Every structure is written in C-alpha cells, then in structure tokens.
Amino acid sequence: MDPYPVCRLKKTGQFVLVIQYPGVDTGVTCLVAPLYPEGQAPPMEPVTPLVQIGEEKYLVAFHLMAAVRRQDIGPAEASLVGQEYAFSGAINRLFFGI
C-alpha cells in the first residue's frame, strides 16, 4: 500500500486516510483518520488540514484517529501523497504542541 491512501470503511462508507507508514507492520490493525466534507465539521487549525479529492474538499480529522482492523478498510480510492507537510504539522501539534 502506498503512503497516505484514502479508503472507505466497508461498513459505513466513511472516507478515511490511512496515516500509518506502510512499512510498519502492526498486525491486524492500522491507524486511520476520518475525512469530513468541508463544511460538515468544524475546522481546528492545524489539526484538521483541508485536502482535495477530485472536485471535493475534505477536512482530515487527526484528532479523531483510531486503530481499525485492516479487513474493515476498502481499497484505496485516492492518494494524498504530497500532503506530508500538513499531516506532520497536524500530528506535531496534536502530540507535541508544536
């Protein structure tokens, strides 16, 4: 799996961003952050970076990240490679306050 794939949860269809590096094997789970269409969730700078997938904009809710079973995640529908700077900024603020 490439870094930063956008997938859907099989049961709900919710878009999630797989934020875990693909070279780290954590067994049956991996870390994901949900995506919400712009305007459907309050932005929290810089913890919810805005990204674009096709014609739509989404907030990536890093503060709501969770471990999800890999079998519950559908195939990649998009990739957000190239957004690493915004993602690392969100994680740094969330975990380290910087």
What's the quick description here?
The protein is α+β, with helices and mostly antiparallel strands.
Explain the overall architecture.
With 98 residues, the chain is α+β, with helices and mostly antiparallel strands. The chain has a single domain, classed as SH3 type barrels (Roll), CATH 2.30.30. It is 13% helix and 33% strand. The chain is built from one helix and seven strands, in the order βββββββα. It is globular and about 30 Å long.
From the structure above, extract its key features.
alpha+beta; seven-stranded antiparallel sheet; 1 helix; SH3 type barrels; 13% helix; 98 residues
Fraction of helical residues: 10-25%
Order of helices and strands: EEEEEEEH
CATH hierarchy: architecture: Roll
Number of contiguous helices:
1
Biggest pleated sheet: 7 strands, antiparallel
| Rg for CA atoms | 13 Å
CATH top level label: Mainly Beta
Taken from the alpha-carbon principal axes, the silhouette is globular
Number of domains: 1
Strand content: 25-35%
Mean pLDDT: 95
Based on secondary structure, the structural category is alpha+beta
Q: Could you tell me how far the N terminus lies from the C terminus, measured between alpha carbons in angstroms?
A: 29 Å
Low-confidence stretches: none
Q: Tally the beta strands.
A: 7
